[in-house]
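Long-time lurker, first post. I've been practising inverse folding by hand and with some scripts of my own, and I keep getting stuck on stretches where the structure tokens seem ambiguous. Below is the full token string for one chain I'm working on. Before anyone asks, I'm not after the true native sequence, just a reasonable design that respects the backbone. If someone could post their per-position residues I'd love to compare against what I wrote down in my notebook.
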């Protein structure tokens, strides 16, 4: 028995107090509560409403022997309650006893003279009311005893005129008796005392007889208008009226009655509304909540607008009216739940209305824009609409309109307005020679020697000799490039130069240029087949070039941009190009005219890979935020007629977006997501509805932003992403069997390539600034050879008396060749064959014909280099072995500022401390963050602390330190900052200059030889580079893109705009001019007195460190492990 069935049974008994029934009803009807039948019966037993025997009978589905008087039906029954109910306590006038007229009636019957006629014995039904006339009549307990016996009457039936029988007299007698009983009851009720009338009305309400309660309250109000309960009775009457419709779940009728009746009593002092406010706090919020829930089902705009007005009116007039729903009522959890629900429903209706209005407006706009030929704006309108309301994209009316708009686009595709011609030379550059430094370990593979592998790494395309690991050639194409080179046959390679927006055809063996075609704008990976070459630009141009000459053959301009390259069909003379949004275009390769436009409906930028033709089906991958969907189209004739709809859509075919193009894997198709999932797809021959299905999936570790590269060969599969993995794929079973996992912490940066039984791959080693290209065994992934290259060069090129050296990021020493032949330099000395995580950032002169290369914060190792090219690796010794910044050299010593606060002199030969270190005040357990020191004089340096989260300091301090070689480092004075010292320190003419940051602006502070402030100049912004000292004064680059020059008294000499690029080194002085070297490769020559431009050279290469001038040449250190050579005259 369910709780609701139990509640109905209890109500039908009529013996349970209405107060208890109301409590049970609230619990049962609360959707958030689970009420057990046994718990309800236990509660009633505890309250004395039922006996244990009665509860047992109810649980067994039996009807307990309980009844009570029901004055509403004017019948008399037996009351067997264990406890008197409230209604039984009402005092009423005693009813007169009925007279027993049985004998009299029998006498009348006996007096009837029978008529001689055939008499038959028949069975008749009892007369109405017979079973209740006598309390002890056996008929009345027939149901309880389980018997269904009908009384029989044995007698003679008069076959003649029935009106001469006794039965009319009996009938009229009973009718008269009932009339007498009715008159008696009317007299009794009409002559009740007022209080009894009021209690009678309350009894009706408590028993759920709300109509009877309304009538009783009306009679009471009319009969006793001045009685003491009259104010409460008026309120109770409204309560009964509302409860009548509320219990019947007539929600709107409840609100209508409330709005009408409560308004009458709002300011009536003769109505005690306090008595019913708790009930109003329940009924009004729930009624409106349920009504608005029903309203949500009607999504017609006019109906929703009408419902919103209606619901808002009820909310304002009833629920928000604190006279009806008090603040305390609103806090009751159940009431609050319904208030929240109705408010949410109203907001939802408002949202529906807004959506439908926006939808109607968008439909009109899209149609008019399409007719006007402004399809790009029409698709933008569609995208904006469906991004805000995703469900609208599925509406047939909108989809049909977009299909129509797509068809209009075919007429808008015209030849692109371009002027493109191939040229035989590289783009002009001031660089005469570029050397690539690489440190090779391992053994060559003679079988692969001479085979060149073109690979894009950190903005440069490098040609690696597969047998030796040497770099045959290098072509810089831009740091932001992600377009890998593409082999054109066995002798040439296609290279995309995003730095200059050029397409290059190079000789594979030497890197020599065959032709260069300036595209003039951003383009994607070229679509290349044996005979065709098509370029797709971001602006939506399709350019078909001659692969042999690089000349333009034909072109087409789409009405919108693109986000991926096109697909060239090898079966049909067609190109399939996905637009930036919504459409897929079919273009003829011969005439470059539009043959078809298919409405796909994808969002802007959601397609990152070209379509792919697979067994006669065109596959299009559409990315979502963290997934990829697959759309399968089936061309009907000659590669066209793709519509009207896809034959199949596989939702979430991969977890994560797919940005690597699809590739064939035997008879299967392989897709790889950016989130590290491989999906093998299978073609279902003969299946018209689901031609493509997932065959197998496998996940591998992939860091966010880390690309993954796949290579396959038969049942072998290699994945290079975060680490390198070798799988054997059981293709018949659809299972991936991981065989080997290597370099799990390294990040792979280029495609891997299977060469015979070897595998070539490129990775960035964890903890190292270098890149390593390797040839490994394909099955074991064991190394055969490795070339470490790339990484920022550690310091300027060293000019060592006719010899020039460069130090790589991992400390390997390279000597520059004396001639200009070749591109690759092998190392002269390797810093370490054991420690592979070395990172050096700068190289300084020790002043004795030797140099030292050091790292940044936390770097313990350093390398010393002599004039012969000999290199020695040394470690800092404790306690001065945890640098907080790059060390500097002073008088043949390393000066190291440590996180523990010590500033110590280090012997470069041993790494140990020389003399006593300087130690400033340090908070216990805190680190000291130091700004790199600057040399002030022969034996004096300046250094400053900075405020940091781990330092515990609230201000920073600048110190002037005297260095007594081999003895100690002592303070010569200090200056506490107003705010926090930032940037670098500079020294000029024995004075020290620092940037003091207070709030959003900085100031340059000048100190004397005892660290006392002597001048201060406020700057119009924050320092992002500097300050630097030059012969003309102090310079600094501000965040306002301004370069400022101050004299040594901190008076401004000049200020000029400079694009806020990072400086590769402090400003240099050459022949009276200032030379600014930017990391983007621009070299600016300025007039030191005015700051005006003298000349600008663009190296077109990323640069670090200061240039070295030697033997009429200028040597620039590259950001990618290269050295660029310029003629000094240029």
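-- Answer (accepted) --
I ran through it position by position. Result:
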């Amino acid at each position: 028995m369910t709780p609701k069935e139990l509640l109905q049974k209890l109500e039908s008994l009529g013996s349970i107090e209405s107060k208890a029934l109301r409590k049970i009803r609230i619990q049962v009807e609360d959707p958030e509560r689970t009420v057990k039948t046994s718990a309800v019966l236990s509660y009633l037993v505890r309250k004395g409403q039922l006996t244990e025997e009665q509860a047992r009978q109810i649980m067994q589905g039996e009807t307990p022997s309980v009844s009570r008087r029901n004055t509403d039906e004017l019948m008399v029954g037996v009351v067997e309650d264990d406890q008197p109910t409230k209604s039984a306590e009402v005092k009423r006038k005693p009813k007169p006893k009925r007279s027993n007229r049985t004998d009299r009636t029998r006498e009348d019957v006996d007096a009837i003279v029978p008529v001689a006629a055939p008499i038959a014995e028949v069975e008749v039904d009892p007369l109405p009311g017979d079973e209740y006339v006598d309390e002890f009549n056996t008929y009345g307990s027939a149901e309880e005893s389980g018997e269904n016996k009908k009384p029989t009457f044995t007698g003679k039936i008069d076959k003649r005129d029935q009106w001469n029988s006794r039965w009319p007299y009996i009938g009229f007698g009973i009718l008269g008796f009932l009339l007498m009983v009715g008159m008696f009851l009317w007299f009794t009720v009409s002559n009740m005392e007022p209080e009894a009338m009021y209690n009678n009305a309350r009894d009706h309400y408590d028993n759920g007889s709300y109509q009877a309660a309304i009538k009783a309250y009306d009679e009471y109000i009319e009969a006793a208008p001045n009685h003491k309960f009259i104010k409460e009775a008026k309120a109770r009457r409204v309560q009964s009226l509302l409860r009548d419709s509320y219990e019947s779940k007539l929600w709107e009728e409840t609100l209508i009655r409330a709005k009408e009746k409560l308004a009458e009593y709002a300011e009536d002092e003769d109505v005690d509304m306090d008595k019913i406010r708790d009930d109003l706090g329940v009924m009004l919020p729930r009624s409106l909540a349920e009504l608005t829930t029903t309203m949500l089902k009607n999504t017609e705009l006019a109906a929703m607008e009408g419902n919103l007005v209606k619901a808002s009116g009820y909310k304002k007039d009833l629920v928000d009216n604190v006279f009806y729903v008090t603040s305390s009522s609103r806090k009751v959890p159940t009431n609050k739940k319904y208030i929240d629900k109705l408010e949410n429903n109203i907001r939802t209706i408002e949202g529906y209305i807004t959506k439908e209005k926006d939808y109607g407006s968008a439909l009109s706009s899209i149609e008019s824009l399409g007719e006007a030929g402004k399809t790009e704006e029409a698709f933008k309108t569609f995208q904006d609409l469906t991004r805000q309301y995703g469900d609208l994209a599925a509406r047939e009316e909108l989809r049909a309109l977009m299909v129509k708009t797509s068809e209009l686009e075919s007429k808008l595709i015209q030849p692109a307005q371009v002027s493109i011609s191939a040229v035989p030379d590289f783009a002009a550059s001031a660089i005469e020679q570029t050397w690539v430094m690489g440190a090779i370990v391992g053994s060559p593979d003679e079988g692969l020697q001479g085979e060149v592998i073109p690979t894009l790494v950190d903005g440069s395309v490098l040609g690696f000799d597969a047998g030796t690991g040497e770099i045959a050639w290098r072509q810089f194409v831009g740091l932001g490039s992600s377009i890998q080179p593409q082999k054109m046959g066995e002798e040439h390679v296609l290279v995309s130069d995003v730095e200059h927006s050029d397409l290059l055809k190079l000789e594979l063996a030497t890197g020599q240029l065959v032709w260069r075609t300036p595209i003039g704008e951003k383009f994607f990976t070229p679509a290349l087949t044996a005979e065709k070459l098509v370029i797709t630009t971001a602006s939506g141009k399709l350019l078909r070039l001659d692969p042999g000459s690089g000349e333009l053959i034909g072109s087409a301009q789409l009405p919108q941009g693109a986000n991926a390259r096109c697909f060239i069909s090898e079966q049909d003379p067609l190109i399939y190009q996905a637009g930036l949004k919504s459409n897929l275009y079919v273009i003829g390769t011969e005439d470059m005219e539009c043959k078809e436009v298919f409405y796909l409906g994808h969002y802007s930028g959601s397609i990152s890979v070209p379509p792919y033709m697979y067994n006669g089906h065109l596959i299009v991958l559409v990315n979502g935020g963290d997934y990829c969907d697959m759309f399968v189209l089936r061309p009907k004739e000659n590669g066209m007629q793709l519509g009207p709809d896809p034959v199949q859509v596989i939702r979430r075919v991969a977890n994560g977006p797919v940005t690597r193009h699809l590739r064939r894997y035997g008879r299967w198709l392989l897709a790889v997501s950016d989130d590290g999932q491989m999906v093998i797809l299978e073609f279902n021959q003969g299946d018209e509805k689901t031609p493509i299905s997932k065959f197998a999936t496998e996940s591998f570790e992939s860091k966010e932003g880390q690309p993954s590269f796949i290579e396959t060969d038969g049942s072998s599969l290699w994945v290079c992403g975060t680490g390198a993995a070798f799988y054997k794929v059981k293709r018949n079973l659809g299972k991936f069997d991981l065989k080997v996992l290597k370099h799990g912490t390294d990040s792979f940066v280029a495609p891997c390539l299977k060469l015979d039984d070897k595998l070539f791959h490129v990775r960035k080693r964890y903890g190292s600034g270098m890149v390593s290209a390797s040839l490994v065994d394909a099955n074991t992934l064991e190394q055969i050879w490795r070339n470490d290259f790339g990484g920022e060069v550690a310091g300027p090129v060293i000019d060592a008396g006719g010899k020039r050296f460069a130090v790589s990021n991992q400390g390997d020493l390279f000597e520059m060749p004396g001639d200009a032949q070749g591109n690759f330099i092998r190392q002269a000395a390797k810093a370490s064959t054991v420690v592979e995580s070395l990172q050096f950032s700068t190289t300084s002169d020790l002043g004795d014909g030797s140099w030292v290369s050091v790292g940044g914060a936390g770097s313990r190792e350093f390398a010393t280099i002599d004039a012969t090219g000999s290199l020695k690796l040394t470690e800092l010794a404790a306690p001065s072995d945890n640098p907080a910044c790059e060390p500097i050299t002073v008088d043949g010593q390393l000066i190291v500022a440590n996180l523990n606060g010590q500033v110590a002199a280090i012997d470069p030969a041993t790494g140990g401390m020389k003399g006593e270190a300087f130690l400033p005040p340090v908070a216990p357990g805190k680190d000291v963050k130091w700004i790199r020191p600057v040399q002030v004089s022969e034996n004096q340096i300046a250094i400053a602390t900075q405020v940091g989260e781990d330092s515990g300091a609230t201000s920073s301090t600048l110190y002037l330190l005297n260095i007594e070689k081999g003895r100690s480092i002592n303070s010569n004075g200090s200056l506490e900052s107003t705010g926090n010292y930032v940037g670098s320190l500079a020294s000029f003419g024995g004075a020290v200059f620092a940037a003091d940051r207070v709030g959003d602006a900085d100031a340059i502070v000048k100190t004397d030889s005892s660290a006392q402030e002597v001048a201060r100049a406020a700057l119009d912004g924050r320092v992002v580079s500097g300050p630097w000292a030059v012969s003309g004064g102090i310079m600094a680059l501000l965040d306002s893109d301004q370069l400022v020059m101050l004299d040594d008294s901190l008076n401004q000499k000049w200020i000029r705009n400079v694009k806020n690029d990072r400086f590769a080194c402090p400003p240099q002085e050459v022949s009276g001019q200032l030379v600014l070297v930017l990391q983007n490769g621009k070299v600016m020559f300025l007039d030191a007195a005015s700051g005006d431009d003298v000349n600008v050279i663009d190296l077109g290469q990323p640069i670090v460190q200061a240039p070295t001038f030697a033997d009429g040449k200028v040597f620039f250190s590259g950001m990618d492990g290269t050295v660029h050579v310029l003629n000094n005259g240029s």
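A couple of notes from the structure itself: Residues 1062-1130 form a domain with the Thrombin, subunit H fold (CATH 2.40.10.480). The two ends are 100 Å apart (CA to CA). Happy to go over any region you disagree with.
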